[in-house]
Amino acid sequence: MQVCTNYDYEIIWVNDGSTDQSAKRLSQIAEENKNCLIINLRRNTGQTAAMMAGFDHCSGRSIVLIDGDLQNDPKDIPKLLKKLNEGYDL
Questions:
Q1: Could you tell me if residue 54 is inside a domain?
Q2: What does the pLDDT read at residue 1?
Q3: How far apart are alpha carbons 90 and 81 in whole angstroms?
Q4: Is residue 52 part of a domain?
Q5: Quick check: 9 and 37 in contact, CB under 8 A?
Q6: Is residue 48 in a domain?
Q7: What is the rounded (10 degree) CA torsion for 27, 33, 37, 41?
């Protein structure tokens, strides 16, 4: 989240029906950060439906997706933002 401090941003966490303590932890995160929105799906709907739920609630003009397994490195976000600011269409 710290990489976004020079930008208006929102972080949308989609909890895809997990049965562990994810919903509780995400609620704590949202209480600490006004830019976070939590979407708790009642059941596991799969990756595509979870992403669509996030898209339905976003208000920005750019979207960066990061799966829970961190397949994509959050440290790459500043590189993406730099290219967007240079006029690239990513």
A1: yes
A2: 52
A3: 10
A4: yes
A5: no
A6: yes
A7: -20
Number of domains the chain contains: 1
Q: Which residues pair with 37 in a beta bridge?
A: 12
Domain range for 41: 7-85
User: What does each C-alpha distance from 30 to 66, 80, 82, 89 come to in angstroms?
Assistant: 17, 24, 27, 30
Rounded Cα distance between 38 and 40, Å, is: 6
Q: Which residues contact 9 (CB under 8 A, 6 or more apart)?
A: 35, 60
Written as six digits, the tokens of 39 are: 């979407």
| Cβ burial, residue 15 (10 Å; 0-12/13-18/19+) | buried
pLDDT band at 86, cuts 50/70/90?
Answer: very high
Q: Which two tokens stand for residue 88?
A: 């690239």
Rounded to an integer, what distance in angstroms lies between the CA atom of residue 56 and that of residue 2? Answer: 24
Whether the predicted model's global pTM rises above the 0.90 cut:
no
Among the listed residues 73, 4, 69, 65, the one whose alpha carbon sits nearest the alpha carbon of residue 33: 4
